[in-house]
Write a structure and sequence with these properties.
The protein is an alpha/beta fold and about 475 residues long. The protein folds into 3 domains: about 50 residues, no CATH class; about 130 residues, Rossmann fold, CATH 3.40.50.10860; about 160 residues, Rossmann fold. It is built from 17 helices and 13 strands. A 5-stranded mixed β-sheet has the order 1-2-4-3-5, sandwiched between helices. The protein has a 5-stranded parallel β-sheet with strand order 7-6-11-12-13, sandwiched between helices. Strand 6, helix 9 and strand 7 form a beta-alpha-beta unit. Helix 9 runs antiparallel to helix 10. Bound molecules: NADPH dihydro-nicotinamide-adenine-dinucleotide phosphate. NADPH dihydro-nicotinamide-adenine-dinucleotide phosphate binds next to helix 9.
């Protein structure tokens, strides 16, 4: 297998990694999130390269950081006033070593090439951990669905898909939802794909239930994250029963994290959005959660309204002058960051640790900065990194693809049971891999190495492509 590869170099793994990192920064300037995601994975891979020089001689690291393909395109659309709007669309097809590209679409004004490359890179390892045959990709647009009418969102989605449809397909690249892309957007995107291609296929996941969607897909990321947290606690003979939990965000992942926490007897006490934080000392029960779901999914309102409705709750508006997020300064046992990247800074991690946090399970992608991650690991907090803890969403997307291919639908119980077993398996892989590579309990190393090995070996098997 090594015959077509560059002959082994003589550099020590650390030097090799350092040099590749320098070239990643030089080739991808002004993309700090991408650099951060790569640096975190590379740090774990030192342990692998020391044991397996074949990856270094095959220049696997240079190859794995380079997207197989990047598509960037103009998305013009008419607003309700008849004015012309122009957004930028992207799809990063990062790695197809173990299956078709798979990963969400994000619609948010902060979207740019670097953010999507970090997400696509993470997705490669996450998808590998799920045990399902899925490569990694990510896409989206700087379009902001907030404040837009349904018709505007539809016109945007139709224009976006008019270009994207050339690059995707059920055996090529299968997008899903992410921030700003939920059931409504997937519906509009799917409708336009079907119209342009004249085919009804499983080209997107997160579809509606009566047109090819899977039961439990909307719930899967949040449910999966809580299943993962439960496994982490089990490894210390503990449970979620009675645990006070901090949840950030109030979108898809947050809502179903709260729902599953309630099933496990925990007490979620916070939600947030970009305007501020709600702290409800009495806990967010099922009735309050139903109210939040209606507020966010139907009325598309802001969480500050929660404090008007439920009088004991406190609203803390976002203050950009504050160098910490007050949500992470509420005393609690467990934290479930479920909003966005880098939402836990070193200062936030200090506050969490000072207040005795026992567990951090990441529902959002890369919500902790590198410094915060390091602090959690050093403080021996149970720390479930995103690419493992939030893999339930894409795993269930994989189950949706399987049902679409077989033209079958599984029951809610069957999908939930498979999701639960996948999360247990992911935890076991991370836990055992961390031990095998000499860093017991370090699930960051476990997830990065566990995810890497399968993809790297597939790349070696498939030659220099
Ligand atoms: P949603 O759009 O449903 O919800 C996002 C939530 O996070 C909203 O409450 C939003 O508030 C808040 N938020 C987003 N950006 C910011 C920001 N810059 N500052 C403060 N708050 C912010 O998205 P999801 O729940 O789907 O995604 C949340 C996270 O989970 C993301 O990191 C995503 O990549 C990750 N994820 C999602 C998966 C899925 O299946 N959906 C799968 C795996 C990971 P506001 O309304 O004010 O913008």
């Amino acid at each position: 297998m090594t015959s077509v590869m560059t002959p082994p170099g003589t550099k020590a793994p650390e030097t090799y990694i350092e040099q590749v990192m320098i070239s990643v920064k030089a080739k991808n300037p002004a993309e700090p999130e991408f650099h951060q995601a790569v640096a975190e994975v590379f740090d774990s891979l030192k342990l692998v390269l020391a044991k397996h020089p074949e990856y270094q001689s095959a220049r696997l690291l240079e190859r794995i950081v380079e997207p197989e393909r990047v598509v960037m395109f103009r998305v013009p659309w008419f607003d309700d006033q008849g004015g012309i709007q122009v957004n930028r669309g992207f799809r990063i097809e990062m790695n197809s070593g173990i299956g078709p590209y798979k990963g969400g679409l994000r619609f948010h004004p902060s979207v740019n090439l670097g953010i999507l490359k970090f997400l696509a890179f993470e997705q490669v390892f996450k998808n590998s951990l799920t045990t399902l045959p899925m490569g990694g990709g990510k896409g989206g647009s700087d379009f902001d669905p907030k404040g837009k009418s349904d018709n505007e969102v539809m016109r945007f989605c139709q224009s976006f898909m008019t270009e994207l449809q050339r690059h995707i397909g059920p055996d090529t690249d299968v997008p899903a939802g992410d921030i700003g892309v939920g059931g409504r957007e997937i519906g509009f995107l799917f409708g336009q794909y079907k119209r342009l291609r004249n085919e009804f296929t499983g080209v997107l996941t997160g579809k509606g239930l009566n047109w090819g969607g899977s039961l439990i897909r909307p719930e899967a990321t949040g449910y999966g994250c809580v299943y993962f947290a439960n496994e982490m606690l089990k490894s210390r003979k503990d449970t979620l029963q009675g645990k006070v939990c901090l949840v950030s965000g109030s979108g898809n992942v947050s809502q179903y994290t709260i729902e599953k926490l309630l099933d496990f007897g925990a007490k979620p006490v916070t939600v947030s959005d970009s305007n501020g934080v709600i702290y409800d000392p009495d806990g967010i029960d099922r009735e309050k959660l139903a109210w939040v779901m209606e507020l966010k999914n139907v009325k598309r309102g802001r969480v500050r309204d929660y404090a008007d409705k439920f009088k004991k709750a406190i609203f803390m508006p976002t203050d950009i002058k504050l160098e910490h997020n007050p949500l992470w300064n509420v005393k609690a046992d467990c934290a479930f960051p479920s909003a966005t990247q880098n939402e836990i800074s070193a200062k936030d991690a200090t506050n969490l640790i000072k207040n005795g946090i026992k567990l951090v399970a990441e529902g959002a992608n890369m919500p902790s900065t590198l410094e915060a991650t390091k602090m959690f690991l050093e403080a021996k907090v149970l720390y479930g990194p995103a690419k493992a803890a939030n893999a339930g969403g894409v795993a269930t997307s994989g189950l949706e693809m399987a049902q679409n291919s077989a033209r079958l639908t599984w029951t809610r119980e069957e999908v939930d049971d498979r999701l639960h077993k996948i999360m247990i398996a992911i935890h076991q892989t991370c836990y055992e891999t961390a031990e095998k590579y000499g860093t017991p309990g370090n699930l960051v190393n476990g997830a990065n190495i566990g995810g890497f090995l399968k993809v790297a070996n597939a790349m070696l098997d498939q030659g220099l492509v």
